[in-house]
Amino acid sequence: MSGKTYPVFEAWAQNALITKDKYDEMYAQSINDPDGFWAEQAKRLDWIKPPTRIKNTSFDPVEIKWFEDGVLNVAHNCIDRHLEQRGDQVAFYWEPDHPDQPAQVITYNQLHERVCRFANVLKELGVKKGDRVTLYLPMIPEIAYAMLACARIGAVHSVVFAGFSPEALAGRINDCDSTIVITADEGSRGGRAIPLKKNVDDALPHALGVEKVLVVEHTGANITMKGGRDVWWHEAAAGVDEFCDVEPMGAEDPLFILYTSGSTGKPKGVVHTSGGYLTYISLAHRAVFNYEDGDIFWCGADLGWITGHSFTLYAPLSNGATSVMYEGVPNFPDASRFWQIIDKYQVNQFYTAPTAIRALMGAGDDFVTKTSRKSLKLLGTAGEPINPEAWEWYFHVVGEGRCPIVDTWWQTETGGCMITPFPGATEMKPGAATTPFFGIKPQLVDNDGNVLDGEAEGNLCILDSWPAQARTIYGDHQRFVDTYFTTYKGKYFTSDGCKCDADGDYWITGRVDDVLNVSGHRMGTAEVESALVSHDMVSEAAVVGYPHDVKGQGIYVYVTLMAGVEQSDDLAKDLRQWVRKEIGPIATPDLLQFAPDLPKTRSGKIMRRILRKIAEDDFSNLGDISTLADPSVVDKLIENRQNR
Ligand code: WT7
Q1: What is the pairing mode between strands 132-136 and 187-189?
Q2: Is residue 538 part of an annotated ligand binding site?
Q3: Which residues form the Acetyl-coenzyme A synthetase N-terminal domain (predicted)?
């Protein structure tokens, strides 16, 4: 904890939507009278049938329902209801990968027409309410149209990040039994082409249920179209009506599935539903970012992740906002790009991940200071703990000391921000997520489940349900119960460590399970290990995280080879490539150490604690190694580490 505190700016303390008094009053009501509080907040949305039953939730047994008798449509709330007032207002400024390529401006009227066409194309391809539709698309306007089209007709989208491999894509298609995949010829990131259609072609022999592939033409690359299966979006769109009715949906009908990594097994399909999710994130967008009518909002997150779902797409549109959507990366063509985009569109609120901030900080201040950034009012960060040094740089250099920073802690499973500063109400502490959002009751417990009150450090739990909470894991409700509600019975366990300081502010310290956070992307060590052991020459692998200046955590792998296989630099390189191919570039190991043996307990369990210490070059603090089956293994590993 850096110990530094920045008071709320005077103008914000007076004029922000949520002032200190307002926060205290609303938070108290949200806890004491959740039904009253959320019934009022549900009025943010247009309901076909307004809910009369508000909160019906239990963590033991696990059953979570919000607004259960309400009927609405998410796409209607994000588009149609704005048309009368805002038809010609810009919904999205779309900025391409390269600044010389043409940008696009999409108004609410245009959004409506394109989403309707997309919806009609999906219907023609046989998609019905409740069907799962897999999206494997770059950050182009069509990914927004496709998601909203699904919402419009009641189909459930499953967006797979376009950086994932064909293998990873096939696994996610199969898990939710999608019969249709929407993709593009290619994506373009940092000037590099991503062969999306080819990846889909490579995935489908392993995903035999897919009947149709809808292909968006983006770069114009030469691709092969398979007759009877593959359909060009622009050809199909030309033949359908430009109007499509919205499907009335129950508040608890699923809106989307999003796969995320856990500490064991394959990625989990986290299921979010309609009414509670949209109510909560719509309020969060207003309250946390202080979004006001006419502001230009930019969340840099890819739609392949939850931050993109909630804050690049659904929340801003639900509030009739104007947003920026950017195809590319922070440092292309150079490290000024983010700040140039902010100037180009006069962005008022900007939201990005600590890893991007650290990377840009490393490029030097000139890239920032040569741009204006005068339009900025507020800065946000999410996805991983932000180190105070990066926070201070974001605050002083990017925001010139005049923009509050909101460091928002949340998760794929939570749908929206859970612990976060409110810019008009909360003192800022670099590195602290500070204070709970409305309706959120955090609690710290020790490993035995004892409650830790006051100033303490422990495991972060949430005591009661909030509307944007995930409802289940697709096809495996028991896994949902086991993963989140069993470690500490009757509580939602976040798997994050957390400190509470003397002021009652929360500081997230990072995952306490076997999940890595690499550049803000969640990665299960088990996934990387299973990719490694699927290689012919590998007999065993253990994966841990280690501190990395830009990525936050890097991936460190220990590999035991099959008997008789010689270790070599070439093989190390091949194995890193192998993981990249199996999962995707974000999973590429940073460091690989051959380990003739791994430290194991007598019962055969790998002692990761020791492997983590060695990866961190912290050899003095290995703790008790006497329970190891063969303690001498540790010395050999240290020797190899030092010689590498
Ligand atoms: C994990 C969830 C923000 C949603 C997108 C990431 C870490 C997230 C913060 C923060 C410290 C953070 C946690 C969490 N995390 N935000 N502001 N400060 N840590 O969602 O991919 O599901 O990852 O990201 O460890 O458990 P996700």
Answers
A1: unpaired
A2: yes
A3: 23-78
For the chain, domain boundaries: 10-430, 519-640
User: Does 331 appear as a known binding residue?
Assistant: yes
SS3 labels along 307-326: HHHHHHHHHHHHCCCEEEEE
Tracing tokens 């009012």 back to the chain, one arrives at: 377
Q: Is the ipTM of this complex over 0.95?
A: yes
Task: Express each pLDDT in 569-601 by its tens digit.
Answer: 999 999 999 999 999 999 999 999 999 999 988
How far is residue 618's CA from residue 327's CA, in Å, rounded to a whole number?
A: 40
Q: How many CA atoms lie within 13 A of 405 on its CB side?
A: 31
Q: What is the pLDDT of residues 113-136, one digit of tens each?
A: 999 999 999 999 999 999 999 999
End-to-end CA, the chain: 33
Q: Is residue 373 part of an annotated ligand binding site?
A: no
Give me the residues paired with residue 194 across strands.
187
Lowest mean pLDDT among 315-319, 569-573, 602-606: 602-606
Q: What are phi and psi of 150, to 5 degrees?
A: -60, -50
Bridge-based pairing of strands 378-382 and 349-352 is parallel
Distances (CA, A) of 140 to 116, 185, 326, 527, 560: 17, 12, 8, 29, 42
Q: Determine the pLDDT at residue 644.
A: 58
Is the beta carbon of 551 within 6 A of some atom in ligand 1?
no
Contact 452, 48 (CB under 8 A): no
Q: What is the pTM of this model?
A: 0.96
In Å, what is the CA distance from 70 to each residue of 50, 77, 310? 5, 14, 21
Ligand 1 atom at shortest distance from the alpha carbon of 494: 26
Nearest CA among 144, 142, 139 for reference residue 189: 139
Q: How far apart are CA 572 and CA 563, in angstroms?
A: 16
pLDDT at 395 > cutoff 80: yes
Q: Is 511 helix (H, G, I), strand (E, B) or coil?
A: strand
* Ligand 1 mean position, distance from CA 410 (Å): 5
The answer to whether 268 and 473 are in contact (CB under 8 A) is yes
Burial of 334 (0-12, 13-18, 19+ CB in 10 A): exposed
pLDDT tens-digit map of 409-426: 999 999 999 999 999 999
- Is 517 annotated as contributing to ligand binding? no
For residue 39, how far is its CA from the centre of ligand 1 (angstroms)?
A: 28
CATH of domain 519-640: 3.30.300.30
Judge whether 183 and 200 are in contact, CB under 8 Å.
yes
The CATH architecture one would assign to domain 10-430 is: 3-Layer(aba) Sandwich (3.40)
Name residues whose C-beta falls within 8 Å of residue 582's C-beta, 6 or more positions apart in sequence: 165, 167, 168, 531, 534
Closest CA to ligand 1's atom 20: 411
Q: Ligand 1 within 6 A of 259 CB?
A: no
Spatial distance between the Cα atoms of 439 and 41, rounded to a whole number of angstroms: 12
